[in-house]
Amino acid sequence: MATKRPHAATIPPSTLDDDPIDPSDELTFIALGGGNEVGRSCHILQYKGKTVMLDAGIHPAYDGLAALPFYDEFDLGSVDVLLVTHFHMDHAASLPYVLAKTPFAGKTYMTHPTKAIYKHLMQDSVRVQNTHTSTSASSGGTDGYIHQLFSEQDILSTLPQIQTISFNTTHTHNGIRFTPLPAGHVLGACMYLIEIAGLNILFTGDYSRETDRHLIPASVPQGVKIDLLITESTFGISTHVPRMERETALMKSITSILNRGGRALLPVFAIGRAQELLLIFEDYWARHEEYRRYPIYYASSLARKCMVVYQTYIEAMNANIRDKFQAASAITNSTSSTTSPEDPDTPTGPWDFRFIRSLKSLDRFDDVGGCVMLASPGMLQNGVSRALLERWCPDPKNGVVITGYSVEGTMAKQIMLEPDSIPAVMTNRAQGGGVMGGGKREGMNERVMVPRRCTVQEYSFAAHVDGSENREFIEQVGAEVVVLVHGEKHNMMRLKSRLLGLGGGMKVFSPANCEVLKVPFRREKVVRVVGRLANEVQVPGGEKEGGEGGEAKRRKEGQVVSGVLVQNDFKLSLMAPEDLKEYAGLTTTTILCRQRVTLGAAGVELVRWALEGTFGGVNIMPSSRDAEEKVGNGGEVAMKNGSQEETIMEVMGGAVRVIHRSPSGEVEMEWEGNVANDGIADAVMAVLLSVESSPAAVRQSAQSHSHNHQQQEREKSWDAFGDSPVEDEKMDGKMDGVLEEKTARKRNPLADVTAEERLSRLFMFLEAQFGEDAISPVATPRFVASNGHSGGEDGEDEGKVAALELARLHDLGIPVPGLEIKVDKHVAKVWLEGLEVECGNKTLGDRVRAVVERACGTLAPLWG
Q1: Which of 464, 486, 490, 660 is catalytic?
Q2: Is 445's pLDDT higher than 60?
Q3: Which residues contact 861 (CB under 8 A, 6 or more apart)?
């Protein structure tokens, strides 16, 4: 009974989350080949500005440019790294084209065995293409002599661009980390675990989890959370027959053909599963002496070359092969051994076959009597396997046994339908003679057909996972997003439907070729604090529970840590500027900026008054220069430097230093260049230019006079809000008529505001809103008022605690713990330390909170 698919699994990911997606958090996947098809595998991954290309194959059913992935749909010049999983044609055969004839400029990686076999395989492919170019039904109108994609020279010249890597080793290129893992498909085949900016991607390529005679099966990566899984879907949901049953059925079919006097043709890839079949036949012939009279041929021009590679990379194979190799080595190195190599019980190397003969070409093949022939290529498009097919298929005694996966559009797929006849490609070419003028062959329009009377059987030994193995692997990986590739559309859709039925919130995609898939991945950004800054960070778990109130608050709200944020390959580190050289390899440079302006009318006191009105308090600093110190009326420090007097003022805690020189009127600004200080310096310069043009800078009298402005100044000595008079200062009775000297004797109401003045201003805002009688101070600290206990020893203890709390608040500049606002029967309390509002009535509480926030914005800072 089919399970009901969860509703969330059928909804596109864009509709599941209404939050806006940052484009930088989206991963882009594009299948340039291998989308809803088997062949020309090539996939593009883009994330955080990095681009990874996976495989570069061709389609075995097509010729020429039509066999390539859709490279013209993507700018290969933007690819950072190209990762090749294995050497099969549908995964690596267009690599010379990419490296030699496209703008690709990234790095290319594959395993050591893959590169060793890739070289021989591609050279042989070019030679076969030059002599045995096929004319398939899918080539549509070509005569078989198509444009060559690349030459043997292109292969040799691009080999140095390919870098080799070993299994289970991690490599990094341009911020992209990748690790090759055994895939169990063919010798050297690997899966790639890729990490970009903390996002883990697993690309399986072609993989197998079946335990066979020479390869290490694929396994789930341990100790890592996979976010995106890109996996093959070759067999969809089909399930393989158990391995031993398949071997038994294969041998029964082969012996049946031999017993009736026929020849058995097994089309195979030159490298890969052919070696597994050779081990199976070697083992069976060793156990059944009655069949040793039938020769077994391995027909491939690469047979001897590639067997050397298999003998070289023994360590890349499973324990079965390694044990046989060690046993044979021990016998060979033993000088006292009396065993004979011809003895069937004598251990031999795993790839030293006694019953299998290599056949480089058909010229030396004596086609007499029954035999077993493993011939390449596996798709029967051309070459030795196609020539033998056309020669043997008319005889009903002979048989064709398909052991691998057959791609749509190839002869291997067509012959499984058991047609009455097949087109003659190799026979027609051999009999047709040469090429006529204009590149057309004689008789090209006459299609020669060969009758088929031989038997056709299929026993799949393709090293691909079946449906159940693939589903089990996907479940074990537990990726949030799964992308299916390398499968015919029908098989892929069935597997997709099966996976969605599992539930669990898994998202499954099966994009077609050139379809752009965007998947959002929101990643938490983790920053490491290093260096001396790390010593200042308090770990919450390391603090004592009985800490002071301030410590408890920091533990609750978190600490504010300031430093320089450094990003290296998507890893973020926070450090002090002094540690940049040690931890980031960077050197720091401080830019000291200076700017000068001459003020003709405004003096130092008016400049100071204007700066205090804009920035609050202005610190007067002593000069480090050698000069005579003099204290002026306003308390500023002036330095005599020759005939000039310097007054140094610091704005915003020293962010900008303002040096005023009189009587020249020159004002120099000095600050350390950064974004914040540059903005403050611009504001200071605006104040200086505005004060120069202010009417306050104009002298009231150009001549001496006998009267004074003492009474007038007293009348103006109230603060800016008209509530309380500022401190009276004695006048010396002699005024020179310059407003600067009169203002020097008064304190700027916006500078150095006392706690009482801040409280008075807050009262002003609240009284304007709620009336004077509604506001009253709260004398009891917050936690004492909430407990409400009194009398006895508890009352005495609370009194001491309240006194300590009041002292702490006074140290913070808070004159009273809070304010109480009464409106009708409702009461609201404002606690001044955090400006928190407590009120049982929500409407009144919101109103009081809005007024307090407005007061903070107008009178800021209040008290921190």
Answers
A1: 464
A2: no
A3: none
Contact 759, 781 (CB under 8 A): no
The set of residues, in sequence order, having a beta carbon less than 8 Å from that of 224 and lying 6+ positions away, is 193, 200
Find the radius of gyration of the CA atoms of the chain.
44
3-state SS track over 713-728? HHHCCECCCCCCECCC
Sign of torsion over alpha carbons 841, 845, 848, 850: negative
- b/e map 168-206, b = 16+ CB within 10 Å: eeebeeebbbbbbbbbbbbbbbbbbbbbbbebbbbbbbb
* H or E segment and range at residue 130: helix 112-131
Judge whether residue 746 has pLDDT over 60. Answer: yes
Model pLDDT for residues 345-356, shown as the tens digit of each residue: 555 788 888 999
Task: Match 């009105």 to its residue by tokens.
Answer: 613
Cα 546 from Cα 529, distance rounded (Å): 27
More confident residue, 386 or 343: 386
Residues 6+ apart with CB under 8 A from 297: 356, 357, 358, 359, 365, 371, 372, 373, 374, 375
The lowest-confidence range among 369-383, 631-645, 674-688, 843-857 is 631-645
Of the ranges 10-19, 240-249, 755-764, which one carries the lowest mean pLDDT score? 10-19
pLDDT classification of 809: cutoffs 50, 70, 90: confident
> How far is CA 165 from each of CA 76, 113, 322, 438, 671, rounded to the nearest angstrom?
23, 10, 21, 47, 53
Q: Which residues contact 508 (CB under 8 A, 6 or more apart)?
A: 9, 481, 482, 483, 484, 496, 499, 500
Tokens of 826: 């409702």
Structure tokens at 261: 């006097």
> DSSP character for 578?
G
Averaged pLDDT for residues 412-417 = 92
Q: Looking at residue 8, what DSSP letter applies? A: G
171 is annotated as an active-site residue:
no
Beta strands in 494-643 (DSSP E): 507-509, 516-520, 527-529, 564-568, 571-575, 592-598, 619-621, 628-631, 637-641
Provide the sign of the torsion angle of the four alpha carbons 155, 161, 162, 164, taken in this order: positive
Among 563, 535, 561, 538, smallest CA distance to 550 is for 538
pLDDT, tens digit, 9 for 90 and up, residues 153-208: 999 999 999 999 999 999 999 999 999 999 999 999 999 999 998 899 999 999 99
Tokens 């099969």 correspond to 88
| Token couple for 851 | 């007024």
Give the dihedral sign, CA 613/618/620/621. Answer: negative
Over residues 97-129, the pLDDT tens digits come to 999 999 999 999 999 999 999 998 898 888 777
Looking up tokens 């990748």, which residue turns up? 178
Query: Average pLDDT of the chain?
Result: 81
Inter-residue contact 436 to 226 (CB < 8 Å) = no
Strand partners, 838: 829
Higher pLDDT: 591 or 444? It is: 591
Closest to 758 in 3D by CA, of 712, 815, 673, 708: 815
Q: What is the pTM of this model?
A: 0.65
Measured distance CA(74)–CA(516) in Å, rounded: 11
Tokens 């044990």, residue located: 323
